[in-house]
């Protein structure tokens, strides 16, 4: 059983209309790992996270979480009744049926990308779990740009996160809130403040805190260091390390490759939608191709 990766992305392709953003990538995250997803702008990192969390459906390939399918079918077999796949063990989600599709979502306005091209629904209708089902299985997504609710207070934003906790209990939520406040004392101080008035760094803390309130097994972090001052970047990375030490598995998308590789166990480098390199963080940090392209080694 230890050989089953917590997250298994197999040969996944994702397209926005005619634009293929991810071209058959495969990656694995084992329970307890921090795995970094590196690559230049437009490499497909965000698309990969959005596909894992159920915001986008793959055109082909499949995604497995703890041995159960999240997206795609067993080996992309066609038809609505693809039947149980090789890994279709006892399902942790008995309500799942063939009728569920991931709902494609337009990117938010102002993201600078064309919204006319919508992602195409997956051809495999076997298991394209929608976002809330993926979340209920224990995957929390901290999207790029944070997406906190600006008019709501810090405390309310955190409470919303706990609604995604499938094992929610008053006591569990209370303990998790305490934990989040210990990780981010600033959030405790600002509890009643409207989230939109927080600084960028504080909003990033809130976004991570809100994801933790769901008590995930796997957290997907999209560019947590983006736009933060160096000191705050260090804080955020230290917290990610702590979260992982607490038993949460981490898939981390980062442009800051140096910082990411310092806390990651392993990493994948994406280039124009494909995995071009993978290895331990130490090997990647030493690799001349990574050093030249992403670590700014001179
Ligand atoms: P960044 O670090 O800049 O966020 P990324 O590696 O996360 O880059 P993605 O955001 O996944 O890259 O984008 C991958 C490709 O898909 C890019 O070429 C991008 O222009 C394209 N793309 C992303 N979203 C859409 C969309 N809604 N419609 C059309 N194309 C899109």
UniProtKB/TrEMBL annotation:
Signal peptide (from-to): none
Q: Which residues form the ABC transporter domain?
A: 7-297
**Per UniProt, which keywords does this protein have?**
Amino-acid transport, ATP-binding, Nucleotide-binding, Transport
Where is there biased composition of kind Basic residues?
99-110
Superkingdom of origin: Bacteria
Q: Name one GO biological process term.
A: L-amino acid transport
Q: Where is the composition biased (Low complexity)?
A: 68-92
Q: Where is this region: Disordered?
A: 68-129
A single MF term (Gene Ontology): ATP hydrolysis activity
Which family is it part of? Answer: Belongs to the ABC transporter superfamily.
Identification of the protein by name: ABC-type branched-chain amino acid transport system, ATPase component
The record lists the organism as Parafrankia irregularis
Taxonomy of the source species: Bacteria, Bacillati, Actinomycetota, Actinomycetes, Frankiales
Q: What stretch of the whole protein does this chain cover?
A: 14 to 311 of 352
